[in-house]
Amino acid sequence: MNQYYRMSSAYDIAIRMYCEKKYDDAIRFFQKLPKSDEIKYNIATCHKEKNTVDSLTLSCRLYEKLLTTCAKNVQLRKNVETNYISANTLISKIYVDQCDYEKAIRMSIDALKFVPQSSVLAYNIGHLYKCIGNTR
User: Does the chain have fewer CB atoms within 10 Å around its N or its C terminus?
Assistant: First the structure.
């Protein structure tokens, strides 16, 4: 078997792994190939797609926790403020995962108007401002 055939085969396998969303396997096969701009681009794309999938998975888990919290609130009709704060914190984390700090800050400020005595919300707002470099 000649070297060109082996490289072509590894490339085809890497592309197939990418299409099947098996990004770690695709990266492994791309790394077996001689380095070129195309291969580097493909490896970077695999990493980007893998991180997107990981971020979406985390966001889905957070949404599930949010739904559970809201369901408990409706069923039990108690601890309304605590559940509201928890739900706000979870949604803020989703915005932070998406690097949308401004939306997380706006949402938390609106929540603080509803529950002004919440030290958790006040802390979260301060932390979000620190994340974007605004420490005034």
Answer: C
Q: How many CB atoms lie within 10 A of CB 80?
A: 12
Q: Which residues contact 132 (CB under 8 A, 6 or more apart)?
A: 101, 102, 105
Count of H-run helices and E-run strands, the chain: 6, 0
Token pair belonging to 22: 């098996």
* Rounded Cα gap, residues 109 and 23, in angstroms: 39
Sign of CA dihedral 51, 55, 58, 64: negative
The Cα–Cα gap between 122 and 124 comes to 5
Each residue's pLDDT tens digit, 33-79:
888 888 888 888 888 877 766 666 666 667 667 656 665 655 555 56
Name the token pair of 69. 């919290």
